[in-house]
């Protein structure tokens, strides 16, 4: 079993920055892709960004490309999401997740087996 804990969320003004962290415990996740998803009130959970097990490959949703950067530190079993130039439409609960299958690069919700509890990000205009 893998436990995931997100942190770093909060309230920020439009144009500001936040850095989210996702700490994994229970077992190493260094052989698994990881991702960030988000869910705004009344909306479906949507893909934000993913990073391969090695960190060499990343993928972003069009709405965040150029503003968000995903990274990971396998020695710390931790993933990050640097969010810059935040917009009110980025307001959501952000979830981190670990892929079900090692060495695969999943980018859809069904690819991910383990999920954190989420951290709230609120961007004021």
Short account of what is shown:
This protein has 125 residues and is mainly β.
Helices and strands in order:
Blueprint: E1 3-7, E2 10-13, E3 18-25, E4 34-39, E5 46-51, E6 58-60, E7 68-73, E8 78-83, E9 92-99, E10 112-115, E11 119-124
Percent strand equals over 45%
Shape: globular
- Please give the share of residues in helix: under 10%
Largest sheet: 7 strands, mixed
**DSSP summary, beta strand count:** 11
Unreliable stretches (pLDDT < 50, length at least 5) are none
Radius of gyration: 13 Å
Give a structural overview.
The chain has no helices and eleven strands. It has strands spanning 3-7, 10-13, 18-25, 34-39, 46-51, 58-60, 68-73, 78-83, 92-99, 112-115, 119-124. It is globular. The protein starts with a strand and ends with a strand. 34% of the residues are buried. The mean pLDDT is 96.
